[in-house]
Structures are given as structure tokens and as C-alpha cells.
Amino acid sequence: MNSLKNLGLYIHIPFCLSKCRYCDFCSFPHPKRETVEKYLSALYREIEEYSDGYGEYNVNTVYFGGGTPTLLEADLLCGLLEKLKKHFTVSDGAEITAECNPKTADLEYFKKIRSAGFNRLSIGVQSMDEGELKMLGRLHSPDDAKKAFFDARAAGFENLSADLMFALPSQKPETLMASLKSICALDPDHISLYGLKIEEGTYFGQHRDKLELPDEDVEYEMYLACVTELAKHGYARYEISNFAKDGKYSRHNLKYWKREDYLGLGVAAHSCIGDKRFANT
């Protein structure tokens, strides 16, 4: 009988193609190769140092977030996972997720990381409207998002999640619903639905007075309309912003909601072990 306690691992990859206008996460656009190599070297050391104190844990979820983990070359991302498996006890049935920008991966990339053990992708779609994507500062197109889903399925991924944002500047309920229906047509297993929050220090935060933002009543109606539409497509709401088909909840994200143990590695990563919370700078 396995007596090990369960643990989730979060790995932060702080690099992106560009900084989106709404983003206040710890991320840095278009990094130099030297910077990436130095960061990964430091991350490897952190994995080695922390692993000594977590021998009594069974890792049953691993989540690579960012930033954009798939901005790393496939071999580097796979090498990180291999490093984790070497120093932690990662269970055979662990949920292993990588966040993905549709512009950063193709069929061959997905094949490589799938064969290395990644079994779930969280694809940052955000909108299926060309104008809204440009307004958000996203570099991918609706066609790029569709291709990412097709390529991921072809590579053998059976657990795909899509991110969708609402209450965007100048967004109309009908354009939001068109995006939602387009995403549902791609048949993801999971959809995360996020209302835009204007954060200080972001491009949107600096230009807030110029943004045509929906009021609270409109935002509320947008959310309810999406919840109703998602239910029609078989997506059950299990968190405020998360919906899944066939019970394919994000096992890692549920750890945050249930206050289960998770360890964050990398810059700005947070952890919760027992009754103690701590974070990297």
C-alpha cells in the first residue's frame, strides 16, 4: 500500500514571445538564449535542493506555467520533466500539463513532449476574434489556435484545455458568444473562462481611462450566457472559472482550491505545504 503523501509540482517558465497588454504575471518577452540557459541552470539546482526534503511525497500532478513553457525548445522542456522525474517520485498516472501559446508549437513539437510524458495542454486561445486578439496584444490568429488543437490531437493528446477571456474592451456579447462557440467546435476537454481584470503596471492599467470596458451588469450577463452555452455543450462548471467534459477537471488546479500540498519552483512560484505558505521572489 502506498503511504506517500500526494504533492503537486508547479514549474514557472517566465519567458514569452511578447508581453500581452493585460498580463501582470512574472514574464519577460523575447529572451536571449544565454538568459534561458542561465535560468534553466538555476531551476535545475533548485529542483535538486528541494527534492531532498520531499522524499515522503508522491507527485501526482505537474504543471508547467508561465510565461510560455512551449517557448522553450522541445528538448529543453522534456529535459526539465526528466529532471523532475529523477529527483521526485512522480506517479505513473500523474497529470502533467504544459501551458501553450498557439504560436509556439506545431505537430512535431507536440509529438516530442507527448512521448516524454506530457499528457495535458492548456492552450491560451483567449478569443477567436482577430480584432480582439490584436487588441489584447496576442500574436496568434484564430487559425493558429485551430491548428494547435488539431496538431495536439494528432500528436496523441487526449486532455486539452482552452482559455477564453470575456469583458474585454469594446467587446460585444455576440462576439464573445461567437468565440465561445468556435472554441466548443474544437471540442476541448476543459475550458477556463476568465473575466478581464485591469492590473496596475500593465499596458491596460496605464491606459485604463481610454478603454471602453463593460459595466458590472454587462459583465455579469456575459458570464451567465457563457455558463448556459457551455452547459449545452456538455461542460460542467466545477470552479468559478473552470468547466470540464466527462470529469476531466484540472487535478492540479483543484489542489489550490482544496488547499492540498503543492510546491512551486522557479521565479515568483508559490507553494503551500501543510499549514505553511511560501513563495520565491
Mean pLDDT: 96
- Secondary-structure-based class equals alpha/beta
| DSSP helix fraction | 25-40%
The total count of helices amounts to: 9
Seen as an oligomer or otherwise, the chain set is: single chain
- Residues in β-strands, percent: 25-35%
Number of strands: 13
Largest sheet: 9 strands, mixed
* Element order: H for helix, E for strand: EEEHEHEHEHHEHEHHEEHEEE
Low-confidence stretches: none
The radius of gyration is 19 Å
Strand order of the largest sheet: 9-10-8-7-6-5-4-1-11
Shape: globular
* First-to-last CA distance: 38 Å
Give the topology, please.
Layout (H helix, E strand, L loop, with lengths): L4 E9 L1 E2 L11 E2 L3 H19 L5 E10 L7 H14 L2 E11 L6 H10 L3 E7 L3 H7 L5 H13 L5 E7 L6 H13 L4 E6 L7 H4 L9 H17 L3 E2 L4 E3 L6 H8 L3 E4 L4 E4 L2 E4 L2
Parallel strand pairs: 1-4, 1-11, 2-3, 4-5, 5-6, 6-7, 7-8
Antiparallel strand pairs: 8-10, 9-10, 12-13
Give a description of the structure:
This protein has helices at 33-51, 74-87, 107-116, 130-136, 142-154, 173-185, 203-206, 216-232, 251-258, and strands at residues 5-13, 15-16, 28-29, 57-66, 90-100, 120-126, 160-166, 190-195, 236-237, 242-244, 262-265, 270-273, 276-279. It is of the alpha/beta class. Helix 2 runs parallel beside helix 3 (107-116), helix 3 crosses helix 5 (142-154) and helix 6 (173-185) runs parallel beside helix 8 (216-232).
